[in-house]
Design goal:
Length: 135
């Protein structure tokens, strides 16, 4: 019985988002994006919605949903995220990212080459996105 309760407690804790992830829960609309040196076009940004709930994400560019899980990495800025696609175009892929929250602006820098970015710069194979809270 004690073992069962210990396992149940550890599962509950693993499903509870960290304090930092709790701060970014909700619906976000893209307001700016840059891939390398190229700015993403406004019509594309207008379609992007990111929903963060618990340790899951739902990303939609207007042509289907990309679903997956999030895991926070580190406890000092910049905070890291491991983003794992479970359904949709990124199923089976893992992206390493860093993020920061400033008031109602969430900035995520995605390493598209399998490496975690070290700063919030869009260079090389990084995607730098800014989202504004929509809810």
């Amino acid at each position: 019985m004690k073992l069962f309760l210990l396992v149940l407690a550890s599962l509950t804790l693993s499903l509870t988002p960290s304090a930092n992830l709790k701060k970014i829960q909700g619906t976000w609309k893209a307001s700016a994006g840059q891939m390398g040196a190229t700015n993403l076009p406004k019509p594309m940004l207008d379609k992007i919605v990111l929903i963060l709930k618990g340790d899951t994400y739902d990303y939609d560019e207007g042509n289907g949903h990309d679903l997956g899980t999030l895991r926070e990495v580190g406890d000092k800025p910049p905070l890291g995220l491991d983003i794992v696609g479970t359904k949709g175009p990124n199923k089976g892929r893992t992206y390493l990212a860093i993020y920061k929250l400033e008031r109602s602006v969430l900035t995520i820098c995605y390493g598209l080459d399998g490496h975690r970015p070290k700063s919030f710069d869009a260079k090389g194979t990084t995607l730098l996105m800014r989202y504004h809270r929509a809810d």
